Amino acid sequence: MILVGECVGMVVLGYDCRIGVRVDDMIDDRKGVKRGGSDRFIVTEMRFMSYDVWKEERMKNAGGIMEERGGDGLKVEGGKDVVYRI
Asked: Could you tell me the end-to-end alpha-carbon distance of the chain, in angstroms, rounded to an integer?
């Protein structure tokens, strides 16, 4: 299993902190990981505040990550208190 986390913003994209990472950044980085490890189970982190929005926006964010080139799983922070949002 490989986790694509929002820290990719600082490590790969050169951001000062993780808050600037966009959902599209996560999708693009997961695509790259998938190309390099296509036989691995890849979990993509729902970036900060991407699941703390209106239901329609949450579903768009989660769906975008899962649909674009084969997402295998999503990670959210907050456990059972936030999992119902997805």
From this structure: 21
